Please model this.
Amino acid sequence: MDRQALPAETAVIKLEDVVVSYREDVALRGVSLAVYQGELVGIMGPNGAGKTTILTLINGLGRLLRGKVYVLGHAFTRIYPHGLRRRIGYVPQTQNIDPRTPLSVREVVMIGRYGRLGLFRRPTSADWHAADRVLELVGMGHLATRPVGHLSGGEQQRVAIARALAQEPEILLLDEPTASLDRRARVEIMTLVSEIHRSRRLTTLMVTHEPKTAAAVCDRLILMKEGRIWAQGRPEEVMREQLLDLLYGGENIYVEYGRH
Model:
């Protein structure tokens, strides 16, 4: 499937009255949402709010009880049309990688390239060059031959982003890309996500627990709780202390505005 340009006003991701449950637990309760081409949208809320479930549905997984999901003009089904999945890059939550893992940074990034190649095709020199380009983009070119299990948490997250970019997606999904990182690494990763989003003209949807940095880089924020959307809008419209206290049950959430 060739990449197709969509008008700027087109919703490339659209959820209509979506209900999802896992056994007795209802993860999403009548959620409706539209994400437009070129937006960088952050999803925030306490644990169990349904944030990751939204990413799962957009990525062609999960099971709908009710409602409709459209991605890049295609309706959600149990099996996405051929070629659609490679147009969606997904960065899951960080997992600690065993130092004994016998894969280099460059080889891990090439795994993402197989989304375009197909499982049974060998990468060409052009594919390896594509992997090298995204490694340079995320600032990891100098560590291309290092075992991936020998990297710091922030470095591993950069590699995960590069792996998703290697398939040249139009939509980028990130599930808590700064989880378990120190403050400096969190700021660096969020800044990197913003830079990649702008330079590659992506549509980006990111689950985050970082109010301060999310307010600085996102075009729009969606606040969720108990499977529902509480509020959405520009950061300055929704990042109010009283609203965040209600959302997070009184936890101390520090917010500071500022845009790059």
Observations:
- The radius of gyration is 18 Å.
- The first helix runs from residue 51 to 58.
